[in-house]
């Protein structure tokens, strides 16, 4: 896993400063701590908070890489570190102040999953504690992190996790840093899919590559290649920045002719655009558009045949993001602020409809490391009525002979096929079609008729698509 083979120079950073009493905290670690606090205490999103913090602190190069690994890795492995810390602290973790617990998690990540000298890691975290929480907390941080440093990650897993023979799911929850309920849901969803549960969990712990999309008619993969990207595996419009870096520096991205978009997200939009429909095919709808990556790809595609996309988003600030994504695409495309469950247009108005519904986001744990600990089974139950209502609205909105793509960025069975089956059981005017042929060249798509993509099989987020045709 990438967390176990990191790219930082924290050992040099710490060892060069040994013996300097009462010095200030390391700036990069301080930024990382503040971002983690923003995520855990304020419900922030790691990617947004980190990007903003890196800009404001003017961190780049190795400092930015160190900070990014420290933030994402700490959030990704949070639940596992808590198991180890519970064995190293003389009180219940629930009784520790949250800001102190976050410091201990940051220290644990450096000691167990990053190549940071143990003396440097402990010393730097003690100094950061003194700066952020005061002198009297430093003793506890020093003692606990020294206990953590006495074992490797593998040794801690062996000591703290249930044995594989006794409880496989419980063991994986600690060894692969996923909540038990998430692992159980993934196990159900995998079924007989190629690869295995452990491979999926390991892939979830690999930071994703930066994937770009060249919007049709505006840019192409060759142009992105000139900026250092290589063609993606499956999408004809996808390209990967293998060396990472800021995609905003690429002219096509900066002007909106290209964008940042996971390849799985591209594939489900392309599948909807490729499904056969008879007759008129110029009026497309994105029912849940924000932030607008799929909207932009669909708008570019429909524009090439003289059509129009209507994008609906209930939140104004997210509708503004959609407009930003569409800014370079010609044509009479519309972005409306509204509730997709309460259409203001006549039934049967559209030829194709995308219903990319709100979900738990469990399919994007690679890029949203905090989501695995933030989401609960209650979120699945609470989102279900909205998902069904949106799919029902999408089917009502499409014309006879038209198609609907029901999409989630979650493989949880109760957010995918269960929603589709429940809605179709209430209607007699729509049916599920085999969507696998709409993913040309992509292997391991399962038994159909719906399609589930996987990080460990396809290198994408775990996107789900069901294709529904109006009778």
From TrEMBL:
| Annotated PROSITE patterns | NOL1_NOP2_SUN, SAM_MT_RSMB_NOP
Q: Which InterPro entries match?
A: MeTrfase_RsmB-F_NOP2_cat, MeTrfase_RsmB-F_NOP2_dom, NusB-like_sf, NusB_RsmB_TIM44, RCMT, RsmB/NOL1/NOP2-like_CS, SAM-dependent_MTases_sf
Residues where S-adenosyl-L-methionine binds: 288-294, 313, 339, 356
Task: List keywords of the entry alphabetically.
Answer: Methyltransferase, RNA-binding, S-adenosyl-L-methionine, Transferase
What the entry lists under CDD domains is as follows: AdoMet_MTases
Catalytic positions are 409
Keyword Transmembrane helix (UniProt):
no
Chain spans, region Disordered: 1-27
- Please list the residue ranges that the record marks as compositionally biased, kind Low complexity: 9-23
Q: Which Pfam families match?
A: Methyltr_RsmB-F, NusB
Residues of the SAM-dependent MTase RsmB/NOP-type domain:
186-471
Q: Does the keyword Nucleotide-binding apply?
A: no
Q: Which family does it belong to?
A: Belongs to the class I-like SAM-binding methyltransferase superfamily. RsmB/NOP family.
Read off the PANTHER family from this record. Answer: NOP2 YEAST -RELATED NOL1/NOP2/FMU SUN DOMAIN-CONTAINING (PTHR22807), RIBOSOMAL RNA SMALL SUBUNIT METHYLTRANSFERASE B-RELATED (PTHR22807:SF53)
The protein, known as: Transcription antitermination factor NusB
